[in-house]
Amino acid sequence: MYRTTRGLATSGLLLALALAGCRQEAEVPGGTAGPDASVTPAAADTAAAAPVALEDVMETDPRYIVGISYPPGMDRYPGLAAELRRYADAARADLMEAVEAHDPAEGGERIPYDLTLAYDVLMETPTIVAVQAWGTLYTGGAHGNPLVARFVWLPQRKEMLRAEKLVAGEDGWREVSAFCRESLHAALSQRLDADDVAPADRVKLMRSGSEMIDDGTGSLAENFGQFEPLPGEGGRLRGLRFVFPPYQVGPYSDGMQTVEVPASVLLPHLAPEYRDLFAAG
User: Fold this and answer.
1) Contact present, 70 and 129 (Cβ < 8 Å)
2) What is the b/e burial string over 173-204, where b = at least 16 CB atoms within 10 angstroms of the residue's CB?
3) What would the pLDDT profile of 7-46 be if each residue is shown by its tens digit?
4) Could you give phi then psi for residue 75, rounded to 5 degrees?
5) Helix axis angle, 170-194 to 199-216, nearest 10°
6) What is the pLDDT of residues 176-214, one digit of tens each?
7) Separation between Cα atoms, residue 247 and residue 27, nearest integer Å
8) Tens-place pLDDT, residues 49-96
9) Which CA distances in Å does 174 have to 89, 104, 160, 168, 263?
10) Contact call for residues 37 and 226 (beta carbons, < 8 A)
């Protein structure tokens, strides 16, 4: 029915991007999910018109370290490649802005700053290509800013599948919101039970955690902008996995959380042009 997961993504690819001798990954307080993974449709259409070269980056400087890895073959989808490049460029711009603003005389913050960003292909079919971005942007402070983004490209339509176009009307988002909230509340309760929290502390943590969940899953398309397709039978989707970066529905320590919403919940509220992507029933 649904599944909730936690923890930031880690793999050998991300470690490979960190250069030898680099300091252990640092972390930045109270950040966001990194550069905004959305872009206006008009801007995307303009970017899709021209080929985009995606080249891995390994760069060191006394002030910063950059490691960016793209999946091979994305040049087959110029519009998608443009968005992957745009996201990476935005993350790099954030890094360089912090580097330029840093005053060594003030001390306190660790240098070098760093950006580690990797892309992985989650799904590639004639109708859907899905890519995830994950990594860390460190620009000072206690810990790094997690980078979490998803890109779902429709090759036959030559467009990005976006939350604001996917669901038709506010009523649909209320249904998705309610489903996700129920899942996330249940997962929070299960975590607190597993941690054997004292009853008084459990009440406080459940209250504060529930407030974060409710705030982060309000019935607005922007709260559900990160999602992955769930492949089903006959080349259609059995649902979507909505991705909530750290801080959106819980503290940093809870990491990234996800909720799988089945097609049966989504179909009554999908925009007509996207219904054929999903399996009925």
Assistant:
1) no
2) bebbbebbbebbbebbeebbeeeeeeeeeeee
3) 333 333 333 343 333 333 333 333 345 676 544 554 554 4
4) -70, -10
5) 160
6) 999 999 999 999 999 999 988 889 999 999 999 999 999
7) 13
8) 577 889 999 999 999 999 999 999 999 999 999 999 999 999 999 999
9) 34, 49, 23, 11, 15
10) yes
